[in-house]
Amino acid sequence: QVQLVESGGGLVQAGGSLRLSCATSGRTISGYAMGWFRQAPGKEREFVARITWNGSNTYYADSVKGRFTISRDNAKNTVYLEMNSLKPEDTAVYYCAADVFSRLTAYFTDYDYWGQGTQVTVSS
Question: Which pLDDT band holds residue 27 (cuts at 50, 70, 90)?
Fold first, then answer.
């Protein structure tokens, strides 16, 4: 069983930055592709970014491209999401997820393990 725990969310003004972390206990995630998703109130969960197991390849939603950076440190069993130039429309609960079979898609149904989420609120 893989348990994912997100941290680093909070309240920030538009234009500010936050760094989210996703740590795991129990089994290592070093062999899994990982992704970040977000869900705003009343909206469906949407893909934000993903990274391959070794960090060699990343992919971003158009809405965050150039502002967000996904990275990982397998030695620490941790995945990060660096968020810059934040906008009010980035307000959501952010979730990290493990893609055990490296499907490398943007569909949340293709991810096998999920964290509980961390709230990010961007004020205008």
Answer: confident
DSSP designation for 124 = -
Q: Are 121 and 91 in contact (CB under 8 A)?
A: yes
In the prediction, which pLDDT does 1 show? 81
For residues 70 and 50, is the Cβ–Cβ distance under 8 A? yes
Which residues share a beta bridge with 122? Answer: 12
Between 49 and 106, residue with greater pLDDT: 49
- Cα gap 52→30, rounded to integer Å: 10
Q: Is residue 32 within 8 Å of 100, Cβ to Cβ?
A: yes
CB contact set of 87 (below 8 Å; sequence gap of 6+): 14, 122
Query: b/e map of 34-56 (b: 16 or more CB within 10 Å)?
Result: bbbbbeeeeeebebbbbbbbeee
